[in-house]
Amino acid sequence: MTLSGWNVLLVGQNFHSARALKDKLHQWKFQNHFAGNMREASDLLGSHRVDLVLTHTYLSDGTGVGLLAALDHLPVTAFLCLPVENSCLWLPAIDGGKKCLGLPALRPLEFARTLEEMARGLSIGTQASCSRLGALIAVGRDCA
């Protein structure tokens, strides 16, 4: 199974203007849904199947960490976007419904390559483990 057609939830106001990220997700045939805050994200999670969640650290009505806690019971993969100076780091947080804190943070190019590896067919699903996500991240980092 590939990620083509997977539903991606992008949570945070800045994702609406993140053209490069949206273009890549569209190129890989991900179906994008946008939520500006935790309330909108909760509504979308209640009405849509979501496979991948990308959330900003700070949301207008809470935090990305709070949102991740709400995802605990869902078979999703999630990354937390942490702003740093003029860029960001992507923190892997959940893989297939299992917490996987402690994996290395990814710079934007490493994150893009990790998503690309996922889109190529190294899919992450409910049977996946954090070691599988870790392997995908290693591939993305080796290419950087």
What does the secondary structure layout of this molecule look like, with pairings?
Blueprint: E1 7-11, H1 19-27, E2 31-35, H2 38-47, E3 52-56, E4 58-59, E5 62-63, H3 64-70, E6 77-84, E7 87-95, E8 98-99, H4 108-119, H5 130-142
Parallel strand pairs: 1-2, 1-3, 3-6
Antiparallel strand pairs: 4-5, 6-7, 7-8
Helix pairs in contact: 4-5
What is the global morphology?
Answer: globular
Instruction: Say which CATH homologous superfamily is assigned.
Output: Response regulator
Which percent range describes the beta-strand content? 25-35%
CATH class: Alpha Beta
Report the CATH topology name: Rossmann fold
Reported for the largest beta sheet, the result is: 6 strands, mixed
The total of helices stands at: 5
Short description:
The protein has one domain (7-142): Response regulator (Rossmann fold, 3-Layer(aba) Sandwich), CATH 3.40.50. Helix content is 35%, strand content 26%. The protein has helices at residues 19-27, 38-47, 64-70, 108-119, 130-142, and strands at residues 7-11, 31-35, 52-56, 58-59, 62-63, 77-84, 87-95, 98-99.
